[in-house]
Amino acid sequence: MDIAWLRRFGGVAQKEPEGGVRLVCFPHAGGAASSYVPLSRLLSPAVDVLAVQYPGRQDRHRERPIESVTRLAELVADALDTVDDRPYAFFGHSMGAVVAYETARTLSARSAPGPLRLFLSGRAAPEPRPQDADRMTSDADVIAAIRMLGGTGVGVLDDPELMEMALPALRADYRAIGSYAWEPGPPLDCPITALVGDADPVAPVARVAAWSGFTDADSDLRVFPGGHFYLDGRTEEIGDVITAALGVRV
Prior knowledge:
7-stranded mixed β-sheet; alpha/beta; Thioesterase; hydrolase
């Protein structure tokens, strides 16, 4: 396993479980692998949860963050080449949903085994991007966006020292989102489960439901009460969606 890119939080020893399905989790903008600790502990050892650690945060804070969704996807796909070939699925929230989708596309283009299912949370399905689309150009823009989205990490905004550490990754992630230009291509062949909060200000339910058009397989939509970070405090509910879809008993 590529320990630079992938983290396992399932148990004290963090050992790789034998057999079973694997779930690769992709964090939101500014997020880190540790955001998936609660889900990992809930699902392990029945599900081997691996969380992606993007450069520029936590134990990778000295590395330069990556400002491209597709480049992130390519590098994650490379890292996944270092793990065994057991069946796996992807779960991504917000920016992580797009990185998960693009990683699945990258693997398909390489004729590599694809995921059993994509769980795409808190992100509208991609649309062709106009050339003059607005992009966030200042720290103030990024901070305003984070405040608007809310979530349990919003308190970091009021701590100057924490913000100084967090801003490089946040800037890079929002530049990655702002510069992401979806390229139409063949639909995936794995099922998609789209998840969203009913009051999400940036991912309307109808546009999240449009992920169904990005696969030739089945798809479903799960709507929860709440905003962009509807999943905060809903670990067991999200776990139930995942295990039911994958046919796993925890």
